[in-house]
Hints:
Layout: E1 2-5, E2 10-12, H1 21-24, E3 31-36, E4 41-44, E5 49-55, E6 58-62, E7 68-72, E8 85-87, E9 94-95, E10 100-104, H2 106-111, E11 118-122, E12 130-131, E13 138-139, E14 144-148
Antiparallel strand pairs: 1-14, 2-3, 2-13, 3-11, 4-10, 5-6, 5-9, 6-7, 7-11, 8-10, 12-14
Pfam families: PTS_EIIA_1 (PF00358)
Subcellular location: Cytoplasm
InterPro entries: Dup_hybrid_motif, PTS_EIIA_1_perm, PTS_EIIA_component
Amino acid sequence: MTTVTSPVAGRAVGLAAVPDPVFSGAMVGPGTAVDPVREATAAVSPFDGVIVSLHPHAFVVVDDKGRGVLTHLGIDTVQLNGQGFELLVCKGDTVRRGQPIVRWDPAAVEAAGKSPICPVVALEATTEALGGLVEDGDVEAGAQLFLWK
């Protein structure tokens, strides 16, 4: 079983609350989402693994079992062309849970007209494979969001 933790501090809201049908419909995969606190911070790795995809607005970490977790920093933030995001690691880097990956400012994302909500998705997983899904309440960065059985 793999524990997946929150990449940001904020309020867990669940994927259904994400203002994007691809995420809210769990088309990318099951998981949850966090509405982040509105302060400049670093999004951290949700578990130990290797960075296999890295963009200013999103990253994927894959663990030693081949399980990949997508962290998406806001909705439609790809349209910001990296402005307001700072990469702190490189694609191919091995990272540890809680290690800073991308520095960003959710308040600036919101000021730019985008939602700062952060989907955290288990790629190529089934809903049944996840347990202990946190879909409401305050969470700190590093707090458990779900278990991947």
